[in-house]
C-alpha cells in the first residue's frame, strides 16, 4: 500500500485563516478490507465553504475536527478494489479530502459516484459538472425560477458557481448581470461566459450607492432574481435595485467567514418588495442532482459552458491556493492537481 501525504487542520483560525492553521503529514495507507476500494486522487477541489468549517461555531454542518484530514471533494481513479461495485480503472468523484489517496467503504451510499470517460474533462466533475454547478442550478431553477426576459444577477460571477449560473440562465432566456473583482474577470465573464454585463465591484470602493448606480445602468428593468455568494455591502447594493417579488438564493456569505458580523443596511426592502430570500445547502437537495448534472454536462460538452480553472500543483500547495482563493486570487474554479 502506498504512503499518503495529507493536509490536516492543525489549529483554528483567529480571524483571517493562515497557512499555519494547516499541517502536512505522511501516513501509511491501511490495507483494504472486504468491500473497500483505494482511490488515487487526481484533483482536489478547494471551495469557500471550507473556511466556515474551520471555525468552531454553530453552522449548518459540523466543524472540521482538529488533527484530521481537511474535508474536500476529489476526483480520481480506483487503483485497488475489494468491492464488486468498482473495478480498477473506474473514474470516481467523492469527498476524499486533502490527501493523495483515500480508502472508501464502497457500500456506503453517496460515498463515491462513477463518472464516464468522454468529452467532459475529469476536473469538471469538481466544478461545472459537480457540486458548484449543481449549486448554481438549484439556486437558479428552484429558488429564483426566472421567466424569459427577466434580469438575474450573481456575485463571484467568474467563479465555478457563477460561470455555471450564467450558462443556465442564458439557456432560460434571461438577461444575466455579474459582479466580480477586477477588469480581467469581468472581461472574461462578458466575452467567454456569456454575461450581458459584468460589474467590477473593486471600482466602487465599498460604496453601496455607487455600486447600486452601476447596477441600475446594467439592469434598467431592475433585478428579478439574485444569487448571493458573498454578502455584505455588495448584497446591500443589489437589494436597492430589486423589483417587487424578487427572489434571492443565498448560497454563501464569504465576506463574513472570518467572524465579523454582516449587518444589512436596508432589511425593510425585504418587506417593501415582498422579497423571497432563501438560504440553501445543495447537499440537502440530492433529488435535483441527476437533472442538474445532465444539463450541465451537455453545456460543457457542447462548448456552451467554458469555465476556467486555476490549478495548483501538488498537495503541499493546497493551503496557499486555498487562502488565495479566499482573497479572490483564483480565476475560475480552484483545484489542486495531485498526479
TrEMBL record:
Pfam families: ADH_N_2, ADH_zinc_N. InterPro entries: ADH-like_C (IPR013149), ADH_N_2 (IPR041694), ER (IPR020843), GroES-like_sf (IPR011032), MDR_fam (IPR045010), NAD(P)-bd_dom_sf (IPR036291). SMART domains: PKS_ER. This is NADP-dependent oxidoreductase. Residues 17-336 form the Enoyl reductase (ER) domain. It comes from the Bacteria. Transmembrane segments: none annotated. GO terms for molecular function: oxidoreductase activity, acting on the CH-CH group of donors, NAD or NADP as acceptor. The keyword Oxidoreductase applies. Keywords: Oxidoreductase. The lineage of its organism: Bacteria, Pseudomonadati, Pseudomonadota, Betaproteobacteria, Burkholderiales.
Amino acid at each position: 500500500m502506498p504512503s499518503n501525504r495529507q493536509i490536516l487542520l492543525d489549529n483554528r483560525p483567529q480571524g483571517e485563516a493562515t497557512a499555519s492553521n494547516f499541517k502536512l503529514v505522511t501516513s501509511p495507507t491501511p490495507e483494504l478490507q472486504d468491500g473497500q476500494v483505494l482511490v488515487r486522487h487526481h484533483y482536489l477541489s478547494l471551495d469557500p465553504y471550507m473556511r466556515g468549517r474551520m471555525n468552531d461555531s454553530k453552522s449548518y454542518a459540523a466543524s472540521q475536527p482538529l488533527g484530521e484530514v481537511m474535508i474536500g471533494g476529489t476526483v480520481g481513479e480506483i487503483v485497488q478494489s475489494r468491492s464488486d461495485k468498482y473495478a480498477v480503472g473506474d473514474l470516481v468523484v467523492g469527498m476524499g479530502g486533502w490527501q493523495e489517496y483515500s480508502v472508501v467503504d464502497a457500500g456506503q451510499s453517496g460515498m463515491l459516484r462513477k463518472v464516464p470517460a468522454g468529452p467532459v474533462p475529469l476536473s469538471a466533475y469538481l466544478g461545472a459538472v459537480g457540486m458548484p454547478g449543481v449549486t448554481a442550478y438549484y439556486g437558479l431553477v428552484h429558488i429564483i425560477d426566472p421567466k424569459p426576459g427577466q434580469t438575474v444577477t450573481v456575485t463571484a460571477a467568474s467563479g465555478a458557481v457563477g460561470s455555471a449560473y450564467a450558462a443556465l440562465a442564458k439557456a432560460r432566456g434571461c438577461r444575466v448581470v455579474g459582479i466580480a473583482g477586477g477588469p480581467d474577470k469581468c472581461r472574461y465573464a462578458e466575452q467567454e461566459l456569456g454575461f450581458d454585463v459584468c460589474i467590477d465591484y473593486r471600482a466602487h470602493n465599498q460604496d453601496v450607492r455607487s455600486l447600486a448606480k452601476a447596477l441600475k445602468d446594467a439592469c434598467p428593468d431592475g433585478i428579478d432574481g439574485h444569487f448571493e455568494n458573498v454578502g455584505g455591502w455588495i448584497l446591500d447594493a443589489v437589494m436597492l435595485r430589486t423589483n417587487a417579488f424578487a427572489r434571492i438564493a443565498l448560497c454563501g456569505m464569504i465576506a463574513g467567514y472570518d467572524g465579523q458580523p454582516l449587518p444589512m443596511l436596508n432589511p425593510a426592502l425585504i418587506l417593501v418588495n415582498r422579497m423571497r430570500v432563501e438560504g440553501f445547502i445543495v447537499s440537502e437537495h440530492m433529488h435535483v442532482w441527476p437533472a442538474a448534472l445532465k444539463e450541465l454536462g451537455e453545456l460543457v460538452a457542447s462548448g456552451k459552458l467554458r469555465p476556467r480553472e486555476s490549478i495548483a500543483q501538488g498537495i503541499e500547495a493546497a493551503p496557499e491556493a486555498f487562502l488565495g482563493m479566499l482573497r479572490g486570487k483564483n480565476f475560475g474554479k480552484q483545484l489542486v492537481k495531485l498526479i
